[in-house]
Amino acid sequence: MASVGPSAASTQPALPSGPAVFKTIPYAFILPEILCGTWVWILVAGTSVSQPLLQGWVMYVSLTSCLISLLLLLSYLLGFHRNSENWKVLDSLYHGATAILYMSAAVLQANATINSEFSTNAPLNYQLNSAASFFAFLTTFLYILHAFSIYYQ
Question: What is the C-alpha separation between 73 and 68, in angstroms, rounded?
Answer without folding.
Answer: 9
